[in-house]
Design a protein that fits this description.
By secondary structure, the chain is mainly α. It is built from 9 helices and no strands. The longest helix has 31 residues. It binds protoporphyrin IX containing FE.
Length: 205
């Protein structure tokens, strides 16, 4: 889980980076150039397959891990004083993961599918105009904010636990990794969350 998690984190860095090109605020010219490069670069196309395989593997590993944990302790604790033993998001990784999965289905339908359909039909596609159209509807803005919120909590726990799963649990380095994880989660999610909001408000045109 640690390896697939870190791979998905590296995808998020590229994704939030390309998306931030909307802040050039030049009617999507810079952003569309980035999106066009991503859609047509053969190496990125191969990475796309690896990405989807990584996403599925990460979810399957989570299900197996949860089942193994249950098997290791078939009788549930009579008293689970959760808050005293673990943080809310470490106990809620499964719920947040499912919420993220639902968000991803909507998200891929909004953006990935129209791009692919245009590619197959050999038609021009303006991803920026598609962004504007999606984020002109308040309910999509709401869905994206909920999705990004789930991502933030998922990452807050997931970032440092990826290193822990890989065996990196060190008195000296773990506190620093935890701090980097918190800042990373907040910055990436604030950037993602700002996109539907600024487009809905017409700040990005
Ligand atoms: C709220 C801000 C977000 C915006 C504006 C956004 C925008 C986009 C766009 C435009 C694409 C289509 C790229 C194409 O033309 O093929 C895309 C693809 C994708 N996005 Fe997002 N995204 C956001 C957040 C997220 C988040 C939070 C995640 C993950 C948790 C995510 C995961 C993906 C995935 C897996 C793809 C498919 C990548 C591929 O083409 O291989 N996105 N996104």
């Amino acid at each position: 889980m640690g390896l697939t998690g870190l791979f998905l984190i590296s995808f998020l860095v590229v994704h939030v980076g390309i998306n931030s090109l909307i802040y050039a605020n030049d009617n999507g010219e810079t952003f569309n150039a980035g999106a066009h490069f991503m859609a047509h670069n053969p190496l990125i196309r191969v990475m796309e397959i690896v990405l989807f395989a990584g996403l599925i593997l990460h979810a399957v590993q989570a299900i197996i891990l949860t089942m193994e944990n249950k098997k290791a302790r078939p009788v549930a604790y009579a008293m689970t004083n959760g808050a005293a033993n673990s943080s809310w998001y470490s106990r809620s990784m499964a719920l947040l993961g499912i919420l993220l999965l639902l968000f991803l289905i909507v998200h891929l339908g909004n953006f990935w599918l129209p791009t692919k359909q245009a590619l197959i039909a050999d038609e021009e596609h303006n991803t920026f105009e598609n962004l504007k159209a999606v984020f002109s509807q308040w309910y999509f803005v709401l869905i994206y904010l909920i999705g990004v919120f789930a991502l933030c909590y998922h990452l807050l726990h997931g970032f440092q636990s990826a290193f822990q799963s890989l065996g990196l649990n060190h008195k000296k380095y773990t506190p620093t990794i935890k701090k980097i994880g918190i800042w990373f989660s907040i910055i990436v999610c604030l950037l993602f969350a700002s996109m539907p909001v600024t487009m809905f408000l017409g700040i990005i045109k």
